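ok new one. same drill as before - structure tokens go in, u give me an amino acid for every spot. 124 of them this time. try not to just spam alanines like last time pls lmao
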């Protein structure tokens, strides 16, 4: 059983930055996809970024490319999402999720483990 705990959300003005953290425990497989997803009120959940932990391959949604960076610290079992040049449309609840595997990390629909979410609010 994998447990995920997100932190780092908050309120910022447009153009600002935030760094989200996803601390994982209970990982028993050699490789996981760990992804960040977001959901705004009245909208569908959107894949933001993901990483294949075995090879460090990263995946990004079109709306966040260039602005967001996903990274991992294997010693701390933590995945980060650095968000720069934030826009009001980035406002959402952000969730970290994990699934054993290493391919199609952003588009796969079988993420098995989810964190509780952290709110990001960007004001104009």
């Amino acid at each position: 059983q994998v447990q995920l705990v997100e932190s780092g959300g908050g309120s910022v003005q447009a153009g600002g930055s935030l760094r989200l953290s996803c601390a994982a425990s209970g990982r028993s497989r050699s490789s996981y996809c760990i992804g960040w997803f977001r959901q705004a009120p009245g909208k569908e959940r959107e894949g933001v970024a993901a990483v294949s932990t075995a090879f460090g391959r990263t995946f990004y949604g079109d709306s966040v490319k260039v602005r967001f960076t996903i990274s991992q610290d294997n010693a701390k079992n933590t995945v980060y999402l650095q968000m720069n040049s934030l826009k009001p449309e980035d406002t959402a609840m952000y969730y970290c999720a994990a699934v054993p595997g290493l391919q199609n990390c952003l588009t796969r629909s079988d993420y098995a483990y989810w964190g509780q979410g952290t709110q990001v609010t960007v004001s104009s």
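The first strand starts at residue 3 and ends at 7. and btw Residues 44 and 97 are 16 Å apart (CA to CA).
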